[in-house]
Specification:
It is a single chain. The protein is globular and about 85 Å long. Helix 3 links the parallel strand 3 and strand 4. The strands form three sheets. It has a nine-stranded mixed sheet, with helices on both faces. Strands 12-11-10-13-14 form a five-stranded parallel sheet, sandwiched between helices. Strands 15, 16, 17 and 18 form a four-stranded mixed sheet that branches. It folds into three domains: 187 residues, Class I glutamine amidotransferase (GATase) domain (Rossmann fold); 189 residues, HUPs (Rossmann fold, 3-Layer(aba) Sandwich), CATH 3.40.50.620; 94 residues, GMP Synthetase, Chain A, domain 3. Helix 6 packs across helix 7. The chain contains 16 helices and 18 strands. By secondary structure, the chain is of the alpha/beta class. The structure holds xanthosine-5'-monophosphate. The site of xanthosine-5'-monophosphate has 13 residues, from loops. This is GMP synthase [glutamine-hydrolyzing]. Keywords: ATP-binding, Glutamine amidotransferase, GMP biosynthesis, Ligase, Nucleotide-binding, Purine biosynthesis. GO terms for molecular function: ATP binding; GMP synthase activity. Pathway: Purine metabolism; GMP biosynthesis; GMP from XMP (L-Gln route): step 1/1. Homodimer.
Amino acid sequence: TVLIVDFGSQVTQLIARRVRESGVYCEIVPFQSADEGFQRLKPKAVILSGSPASTLDIGSPRAPSMIFDSGLPVFGICYGQQTMCAQLGGKVESGHHREFGRAFLEVEKDCALFDGVWSLGSRHQVWMSHGDRVTAIPEGFEVVATSANAPFAFIADEKRKYYAVQFHPEVVHTPDGAKLIANFVHKIAGIKGDWSMSAYRAKAVDAIRKQVGDKKVICALSGGVDSSVAALLIHEAVGDQLTCILVDHGLMRKDEAKNVVAMFEEHYNLHLLHVDASDRFIGELEGQSDPETKRKIIGRLFIEVFEEEAKKLGGADFLAQGTLYPDVIESVSFTGGPSVTIKSHHNVGGLPERMNMQLVEPLRELFKDEVRVLGRELGLPDSFIGRHPFPGPGLAIRCPGGISREKLEILREADAIYLDEIRKAGLYDAIWQAFAVLLPVQTVGVMGDGRTYEFVCALRAVTSVDGMTADFYHYDMEFLGRAATRIINEVRGINRVVYDVTSKPPGTIEWE
Ligand code: XMP
């Protein structure tokens, strides 16, 4: 295991990604609880992250001294380098030249960390982003590479296996960064790269068995990848002690609930309850137009329906959730105060306390792409694993203005045609998420010889890595024309189609 001490950098998660990609397990621990994390994980190596803080500020974070006392290899990145220097007897000063972006390193000395990656005298692109910089290095260290603005860009104390860099090896703009990190964990720390999904699967199944014993587990299956993979893993561990409940709120895509149920029935022999609660949801949503009100109604009803179904089953001791690692990592904040709520996200939060259940969260240690690999391990078809994300409140938040059954039906048809065209054009996998939105606006058109006065449909498609930021997808106009013509011809109630060219920020991916 590698321990990553997080000082609050925006890119700490990328350090974890790079370590995991090298086949080594790691965890991120906020600096405030790094002592405890160190004792719990018993790591074989430590990486210190970057930070928006300055070591020159009073009370700025430090690495626990037990890390340096342990004799383990340590890799300090950016702020990590600065705090190593501050703590081990070097000097940090506020930089007159703040450095952001591309820089070039010159290798000045051989170093065990460069093995098979960099050689003496060679020059390499790296990514810098720092204000302060090291101006004197602690005893035992020597400079192994420099950049024009950073005479201490890469320093090493090979005897103690301490390495420290001013740049960010974890980002893609440092092309050799991943190899340097892999060298640190394999060659310097001597950790074998045998962390694999099949090993994880066996370990997770074991842990679920221990946690659950002979008790009952229920799982809300949404049809998304995360809840599906969690359910399959738990099913492998405890078989029929697991019951999955799919609450169909009538806000799913065309044939969605049917397809998900069929996929599970065909490939897996698990208890799956398909509850059609669409009348209840749509009954309460009818006429509601405020986005937050819609979200709250859906969240509440979901909990109510799920709770009722669980009671019918005689209750359960455990609730399964597809929580992922990014949701678990405690964020290190220097700004303080709660962040603004943009949208109240729909999940099954609140249920465990209400129903007095414990949580089973077998994906807590995984990133999204690792969940996909695990899903493949568990035999989920690629077409299922690669599906676009779909929000819990479903079509309700793609129907701005008052909700009605009729509008939902129109939207469902338009959305199905749009996605069909995307698949036919072979664009599905290049797009992060695509969907239709039905606007509460009617416009005049002419069809045949008659006047029409019908709704406008907006098409949305974005590319993104994590849904946090997104760019609109650049279709060619031919494609958009084809999709629009089909929607207008085939869907009664729509006579105009527009394309949304807003990125996130300033827009969000969904319209509500
Ligand atoms: P926004 O619209 O906030 O969406 O840019 C970012 C991503 O989150 C999805 N999304 C949700 N997912 N429950 C979910 O499970 C929700 O309430 C919810 N709202 C938005 C959205 O589809 C996009 O992938």
